[in-house]
Design goal:
The complex is a heterodimer of chains A (302) and B (399).
Chain A lengths: L1 E10 L2 E11 L4 E6 L5 H8 L7 E6 L2 E2 L2 H4 L2 E4 L11 H11 L4 H14 L15 H13 L5 E4 L8 H16 L4 E4 L3 H7 L2 E6 L2 E6 L1 H6 L4 E6 L12 E7 L2 E6 L5 H11 L4 E4 L4 H16 L3
Parallel strand pairs in A: 3-8, 3-9, 6-7, 7-8
Antiparallel strand pairs in A: 1-2, 1-4, 4-5, 9-10, 11-13, 11-14, 12-13
Helix pairs in contact in A: 3-4
Chain B lengths: L11 H17 L2 H29 E6 L7 H11 L2 E6 L2 H9 L5 E4 L6 E3 L6 H23 L3 H7 L14 H35 L2 H6 L4 H33 L6 H31 L4 H25 L7 H6 L6 H10 L5 H29 L9 H6 L2
Parallel strand pairs in B: 1-2, 1-3
Antiparallel strand pairs in B: 3-4
Helix pairs in contact in B: 1-9, 3-5, 7-9, 7-10, 7-11, 7-13, 9-10, 10-11, 10-13, 10-14, 11-13, 13-14
The chains are: A alpha/beta (302), B mainly alpha (399).
């Protein structure tokens, strides 16, 4: 288990991180979302020891992460980092060897991963001659080559075409299934929702929510239902119901606490034929918006 | 785990060596290394050829002399001998002589008689030749005047002589020593400025491409910096050894060099001082390079380094050739940041003994220890700070 425990970091007079705490379990894909400047990259840099935290601790299996453990993390920095004039193959071998692989291990591993990521034919080319998408595959290859125990990827999906997104998702899922905790940041919330086991939302340096999408949905506690069929007007007169949206035969209602959804269904049926009566599950984009909004309103009076 | 690879622990030495090897290999394989080597070789070979050509030009002259001026011949021969000029004198008639001068077959032609001598050249008269003929003419005039005054010229000459002698035997190889000193000084200058600059460029390349973030997630800043300096230093050393070996062997084979022992001693000295100077400058170059984020900003911040390297170079070339025991140079040859250039030149000129070199080297090592510590601090504190330039004071104080 990777524990980020009470990590704080200040840059000048700006509090970049304020007691950030969350855990990523082995075999779990953890999506790290938040606005620009919210603290995602700073958190990841602290996990990798590239930045030192002012307070707090990062632990892997209960032990503080030290230089030796960090070497066994696979890292993909936000600003891609490769020598532009170095050949892909020798560059990847060099990085793998810095992570402690022998020359032979490095060669075998690079062969495996460049094949898997579809860049095997480009190993003899200079990095700067590759397209940005392919450079990103090289970067992922660099993060994977030493068979890391933990994967920390900053925006691995940005700038990838749909095929590359599929390849990248497949690889991350595969690593997670093999028992590696995988944490990645992204602004593509649909992708995060589809891919991740759990999600952490960070706003202005503080974790405002963590959990599975289901758990984030349950956070609100209310039940929202989409009803299709009866002409509008029926819901306004039903007790325990709040109309959120109404558009012809489509009505979105919010049930007050303790309201029996069967009673509401009966009221709808009384108003006309019901073709659809379905609990509405807000997508992550909406959950994210609510959570971040809440965070800002909480902060405003302070 | 899906695959059987498992990263083992990596020691600090291994990390430094891996970094150094990458720097060395990618530099030696680069086109600029080979081109730089060829250009430097061409410059030195060109310099040697030019020097040889000039020397051969000045050593041999031919003078035509008309019958009327013939009494001056013995005096001119005497003067040429004392001046060390190889002069061939031929008696010709004026017309042939003038044609020879016009056709560059003869350096000059002497016409006229006592009191109206005239030296004829094509578009100019060689100043050395002119001086010799003038001396002969003066001697002749003086002798005539003395004879008419009743003084014996031979007696006067014997009574007005100054002899010179030296307390130490005159070093017959001074000229070659001087060439060795100058060549060594230039080689050191090229290596310090070229490879120091490479260190700064390399640091900024890593910072600009952000690869440094990936590297520092697995190795420590000092390991990265140490490996880079060692690797590039080794490339500079390789270039120096290649140039030095070609130079010494080439000069010996062509007969330009008659003191191979001294040349070899200087070769060793240049390598030792290259290493001492390189670590000093490379650490500074790395520290300064780490404070900027883009190559475009680098030139303005490393400009002061050029002065630090060029000042001892200029002082050496100006002070030592005419005055190997110059006191300023002697003092500077012990001062770090000057010693790496001044001391090897003094050694080449034979005015510094081995113990002086050792004392100076120890002082340089102390300076390296201090500078490397400070530079490492600046590097560590600035290498991950991108954006605006990091001020040296901030970098020294810590993040």
């Amino acid at each position: 288990m990777l524990d980020i425990d009470g990590v704080s970091k200040r840059f000048g007079d700006r509090q970049a991180l304020d007691g950030v705490t969350f855990s990523v379990r082995p075999g779990e894909l953890f999506g790290f979302v938040g606005g620009n400047g919210a603290g995602k990259t700073t958190t990841m840099r602290i996990v990798l020891g590239v930045l030192a935290a002012d307070a707090g601790e990062v632990r892997w299996n209960g032990k503080p992460v030290d230089a030796e453990l960090r070497r066994r993390i696979g890292y993909m920095p936000e600003e891609r980092g490769l020598y532009p004039k170095m050949k892909v193959g020798s560059q990847l071998r060099y990085l793998a060897r810095l992570h402690g692989l022998s020359a032979a291990q490095a060669r075998a591993s690079i062969e495996h991963w460049t094949e898997r990521l579809g860049i095997a034919a480009r190993t003899g080319d200079e990095v700067q001659k590759l397209s940005l998408g392919n450079q990103q595959r090289v970067q992922l290859c660099a993060a994977l080559a030493h068979d890391p125990e933990v994967l920390v990827l900053d925006e691995p999906f940005s700038g990838l075409d749909p095929t590359a997104v599929e390849v990248m998702s497949g690889v991350l899922r595969e690593k997670a299934d093999a028992g590696v905790p995988v944490i990645f940041s992204s602004h593509q919330l649909e992708l995060v929702e589809r891919l991740c086991d759990r999600i952490g939302i960070i706003a202005t340096g503080r974790m405002v929510a963590t959990g599975s999408v289901e758990e984030l949905r349950a956070r609100d506690g209310s039940t929202v239902v989409d009803v299709h069929g009866p002409p509008s007007g029926w819901a306004e007169t039903t007790t325990g119901v709040d109309v959120l949206e109404s558009n012809g035969t489509r009505t979105r209602i919010k049930l007050a606490d303790g309201t029996d959804d069967q009673d509401v269904l009966r009221a709808a049926l009384a108003a006309g034929p019901v073709h659809e009566f379905r609990r509405w599950r807000p997508p992550l984009t909406e959950l994210y918006r609510d959570v971040v909004q809440d965070a800002h309103t909480e902060e405003a009076p302070a | 785990m899906s695959t059987a690879v498992r990263s083992g622990p990596i020691s600090a030495n291994q990390a430094v060596l891996l970094v150094a090897r990458r720097e060395f290999v990618s530099q030696v394989r680069s086109r600029s290394f080979v081109i730089g080597l060829v250009i430097t070789l061409a410059l030195f070979a060109g310099g040697a050829l030019l020097g040889g050509f000039l020397a051969s030009q000045s050593s041999s002259k031919s003078l035509g002399i008309v019958a009327a001026a013939a009494p001056l011949r013995a005096g001119i021969e005497e003067a040429a001998r004392t001046q060390g000029l190889d002069l061939q004198i031929t008696e010709v008639d004026e017309a042939t002589g003038r044609a020879d001068v016009q056709g560059d077959r003869r350096s000059a032609l002497l016409v006229g008689t006592a009191g109206s001598y005239e030296l004829v050249g094509r578009d100019t008269v060689d100043s050395g030749l002119e001086a010799i003929v003038a001396t002969a003419v003066q001697q002749q005039a003086l002798r005539t005047a003395l004879a008419s005054a009743g003084v014996d010229p031979a007696q006067l000459a014997a009574g007005s002589q100054v002899a010179t002698t030296t307390t130490e035997p005159v070093d017959p190889h001074r000229g070659e020593q001087l060439v060795l000193a100058i060549v060594g000084t230039i080689l050191l200058f090229i290596s310090f400025s070229g490879y120091g600059q490479l260190v700064a460029t390399g640091v900024v390349e890593e910072k600009q491409s952000r690869v440094v973030e990936l590297l520092l997630a697995t190795i420590k800043p000092w390991q990265l910096l140490g490996g880079k300096i060692l690797g590039l230093g080794a490339v500079g050393l390789l270039q120096l050894v290649i140039l030095g070996a070609i130079g010494v062997v080439g000069a010996s084979l062509t007969g330009m060099l008659t003191v191979p022992g001294a040349a070899f001693g200087m070769f060793v000295m240049v390598i030792v001082w290259y290493l001492l100077g390189f670590f000093l400058f490379a650490a500074l170059y790395a520290a300064i390079g780490s404070t900027v984020s883009r190559q475009e900003e680098l030139n303005s911040v490393i400009a002061p380094m050029i002065f630090v390297i060029i000042i001892p170079f200029i002082l050496t070339l100006n002070l030592l050739p005419n005055d190997p025991r110059n006191q300023v140079a002697t003092v500077l040859s012990y001062v770090p940041f000057f010693s790496q250039t001044v001391m090897p030149a003094r050694y080449a000129l034979g005015v510094a003994s081995v113990w002086e070199v050792v004392v100076s080297a120890v002082l340089a090592l102390i300076a390296i220890a201090v500078v490397v510590r400070l530079a490492g601090r600046v590097y560590r504190n600035s290498i991950l700070r991108t954006g605006a330039r990091v001020s040296l004071r901030d970098a020294l104080r810590g993040s």
